[in-house]
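To close the chapter, one final illustration. This time we ask the reader to focus less on the individual chains and more on the assembly as a whole: which components sit near each other, and how the overall shape emerges from the parts.
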Amino acid sequence: MASFLMDGGVAVAKMFNAIVSADTLQATLDSVSVLVDECKIHLNDEGLEIRAVDPANVGMVDLTLEAAAFESYETDGGLIGVNLSRLEDIAGMADAGQLVHLELDEETRKLHIAIDGLEYTLALIDPDSIRQEPDLPDLDLAAHVVIEGKDIDRSVTAADMVSDHIALGVDATDELFYVDAEGDTDDVHLELDREDLIDLTPGDAHSLFSLDYLQNMNKAIPKDAEVRMELGDEFPVKMHFDFAEGQGSVTYMLAPRIQSE
Amino acid sequence: MADWTERYRPTTLAEVRGNDKARDALREWADTWEDHREAVILHGAPGIGKTSAAHALANDMEWPTIELNASDTRTKDVIEKVAGEAAKSGTLTAGGAGRRLVIMDEADNIHGNADRGGARAITSLVKEANQPMILIANEFYEMSNGLRSACEDIEFRDVGKRSIVPVLRDVLRQEEIAFDDDALTEIAEMNDGDLRGAIKDLQALAEGRDHLAADDVVTGERDTTEGIFDYLDLLLKEAGPQEALEASYDVDETPDDLINWIEDNMPKEYAGSELTTAYEFLANADRWLGRVRAKQNYSFWRYAGDNMTAGVAAAREGTKGGWTRYGPPSYWSKLGRSKGTRNTRDHIAQQIAAVNGVSMRTARREIMPFLATMTHHCKNRELTVAMAAQYEMDASHVAFVTGSGKDTNKVQSIVEDAEELREEAAVEGSDGAFEGASAGEATPDADAADDTEDDGDDTDDGGQATLGGEPAGDDGEADDGDGSQASDDGDQQSGLSDFM
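The assembled structure is written out below.
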C-alpha cells in the first residue's frame, strides 16, 4: 500500500532532454531488462532511478544513474513508463561510443530517440499500468563478499551444466566463499578464499538460488566489475556493482529457493 | 468512477459473505498449511466470492500474493517461470521462511489458452510447490483428475438472497444513498446467487442518485449460458423451431461443435421419416459451414444455425418424452483414433509427392487410389515390390496401400525385396558415379536436375496424367544420370521403370 501511495504522489514527467553515450544507456537498460519487460523511470535533478521486481516477486533491481553520467541532462522531474525491450533494441542500433539523444514530447507522450541521424519515436507506457515498484527490504545480512564479476560468471556457467539451482555460502570458520551445484548425477563445487576475493567479512551463510535468475543477472554484471555480495542463511542475496565509471550503480536482490527436505 | 465490486471487496475473511462454511475451511487450510503443504482448489459459480476470499485470506495472513489470471498468457513456459519460481522461492523480505500466496484464477480454463501444456505444468507445480497455492475454478470437474487429487478442495455455494440484501444495504449506506428495501430484494432476486452481479446492478442503478426506489429497478435479466445437455433435451424432445433457434443463442458452443452434438444425439430420439428430414437439414447446415470455411464469411453461420436448430426441431413429428442419455460427439474421438492411420496415409502421400514432384493432395487423391487398386492385396507382387522400393515404404505403409496385414509374411517379404531392389539400384548408381568420376562430370548432373524439375512442373498441371507422364521423364534422366550425385535418383529410376 505504501508504495502505491508513493507512486500516486509522483507526477508524470513533463520535460526530459538528455544526451548519453550508447554504452551507458545499454548497460542501464540491460541491467533492468533481465528481470522485467516494462519499467518506470524516475527522473530528478540528480539523475534517474529505476526500481523493479520480476513478475514472480523473486528478483528485484534497484538502479541509479547520476546526471553526471550523461553528456547533458535536463529534466523537471517526474516519472515515465517504458517498454524496455523496445528501448533496448533501439539503443542496440548505436555503435559503441556513439551518442544517443533522448527527448520527451510532452504533448504526444512519446520519447524521441536520435542516434546519428536515425530517429525513432517510442510510445511511452502509462506508468500506472506498470507493476507497482517494490519497497526496498531492509535486510541485515551477516556475510559480505567482494568478488570479481568474472568469478560470478565462472560459478554460474559451471553450475548451469549440472543443475537449475545453486547454493551460495560463506564458511565463517575457514573464511571462504563457496558455490555448490548438485545435479542428479554430477556436482560442481567452487571455493574462493581471502586470496581469491577482493574482500571478505565472514559470517555463516548458506542459501539456495534459482540459476535462471542468477544467470540473467550475471549477463548484466560486467566481468571486470567488483561485485559486493551480501549473504545470509536462507535469506535473499544482494549483489551490488557500479557501472558507467562509477556514476551508475545497480543492486540486485534475489529471494532464495526454499530448500525442500 | 470506481467499480463498487472493487471498492467493497472484503479485506479480511471475516467480511466474506454468504459462504461461512467455505470461509472457515479456507482459514483452516491456511492455518494448517505448514503441516500439510497442499494446494487448495476453490470452486463454485462466478461472482460468489472465491477470488475475494483468496485475497482476503492473504491479507489476513499477511502473505504477499502472486496472481496469474486468465488475462495473462498462461503457457507452460509462463506458468513454470512465474508461478513455479514464486512457489519454490522464499520472499525478498524474509527469505526462506517468508510465505507467499500463489493465486491461480480460472484454473479450469487454462487449456482454453494457446498452450495445452499449461494444465500439465500446473499439476506438476502443485506437487512441487513450497508455498501455499490457491487455484480458483468454476467447474471443479473440468480440471484433470491428477490435479484434483493433488489438492484439497473447498466448494463455494451460490450466495442466497438473504445474504445478498444485507451486503447491498451496507454498500448503499456507505455511499450515502437512501433506498427502499423492496428495491434491494428485487436486485437480489434478479441475481440469484451471484453477489458480484448484484453489486454491479446496484451500482448501475443507484450511482448518482440519492434515493433508490423499487420502481427504479429496471435492469433486465443477466444472460446466462445454457448447458449443452439441457439444450439437446429441449431441441430433440419438445421445442418448436423458433424456440429451438432462440435457445441456441445461449448455448456456449460454436456451430461447428454444435452440429456434431446434434448429429450424434439425434438418432437417439428421432426415427424413420423424421430422422431423414432432420438429416437433410443437418446436411444443409453442414454445407453452410463449408461455405463459411471456404469464404471465411461468418455471417453464413446464421443459416447453418437455422438449419441445425430450427430445421431439426421442425423435422420432429410430435414431442418425445422420457430421459435420454446424451453423449459428447464421437467426431473428435474418431479423429483421435484415426490419427495413426491418417499419419500413415499422409506419410505415404508425402513420399509420393516428393518422388513424383506433385502436391500431397494430388498424391493422396489421384495417385494413391490407383496404387491401391493395382497392388490390391499384393496380387501383383512385382509391382508391389517396385512401389515399396520406389517410395521407400516400410511394412505399415505397404499394408496401408495394399490392404494386406502388416505382419503377414507376404508384406514382410515384399519390404525385404524392395530393400534389396533399392540397394541394387544404389550400387548401380554409384558404379556409374565412379566411372564418371573424371573431370567435367558436373555438367550432365546439373542437366539431369533441371530435367526432373521440369517434369515436376508438368505433372503438377497434368493432374491425373502423372502416372503416365512421370516415368518417361525419369527414364530420360536415367540415361544421363551417371553423375556422382545421381545415386539417389538411381533407385527412383529403376523403381519406376519396373513400375511400367
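Chain A touches chain B at residues 53, 55-58, 60, 134, 137, 139, 207, 210, 212-213, 232, 234-236, 253, 255-260 (CB under 8 Å). Chain A has two domains: 2-129, 143-254. With these observations in hand, you are ready for the problems at the end of the chapter.
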